[in-house]
Amino acid sequence: MWQDEFGQDGKPDSAGWSYEYGFKRNQELQWYQPENATVRDGVLVIEGKRERVKNEFYDPSSEDWRKNTPYGEYTSASINTNGKKAFQYGIIEVRARIDTAMGLWPAIWTLGVERPWPANGETDIMEYYRVQGQPTILANAAWAHENKRAAWDERKIDFAHFLRKDPDWPGKFHVWKMDWTQESIRLYLDDELLNEVDLNQTLNPDGFNPFHQPHYILLNLAIGSNGGDPAATDFPRKYEVDYVRVYQRE
């Protein structure tokens, strides 16, 4: 249906990808900027750097951390297909090599095109971060809930599970897959089923099902927050994506 093999050196193809800019979520430490996403040698490289940047939206009187933080001490990139490529059902497949260093939070995820979060629906095809201090691979879905910030169908797998299968796991590329039908979302890592989400259960309080609408794709490398403290980690760090492919049945 659509693919990006990242075959052309330079910037990600603007026909498919846009950038996030500045501070965004979860009180993460990185300042997102386009400069940290480049395509070289057939791979999208999202680079995390330790460098000070001035917050151009700085407002000391604001109560929003995204505005009252004067500087970012780290930079990274977050790209997405919002407004350019959106998909409903089928298979999304991403081959990537993630950096598992302390402080890093790489992700492959989707968001629905209609409604604000979490009522638009979120699918985490891949997240890697620390859960109670332990490195963890996550495969999740979120939607709106009446009494709390979001309802989650979460699966957290201790990273040691993958290291036992292959001690060289962090140095290799792996394939993450979202198999999405009207009834379910199945999330795989190297053909191992990590989570199956029953879409009969993912209704917002108003009855809207956010997984029965088109979603767009996001690729990002966050720093800090759930990723842990990056202070002792050497930078720069790299999150590499070999391809993004979307399949749909005729």
UniProtKB/TrEMBL annotation:
Domain GH16, first and last residues per copy:
4-250
Alphabetized Pfam families for the sequence:
Glyco_hydro_16
Name the domain of life this protein comes from.
Answer: Bacteria
Q: What InterPro entries does the database record attribute to this sequence?
A: Beta-glucanase-like, ConA-like_dom_sf, Glycosyl_Hydrlase_16
CDD domains the UniProt entry points to: GH16_laminarinase_like
Gene3D superfamilies assigned to the protein according to its UniProt record, in alphabetical order: 2.60.120.200
Taking the record's annotation, the residue ranges forming a coiled coil are none
Q: Which family is annotated? A: Belongs to the glycosyl hydrolase 16 family.
PANTHER family with a match to the protein in the record? GLYCOSIDE HYDROLASE FAMILY 16 PROTEIN (PTHR10963:SF55), GLYCOSYL HYDROLASE-RELATED (PTHR10963)
Put simply, this protein is called GH16 domain-containing protein
Q: Which organism is it from?
A: Pontibacter saemangeumensis
Organism classification, top ranks?
A: Bacteria, Pseudomonadati, Bacteroidota, Cytophagia, Cytophagales
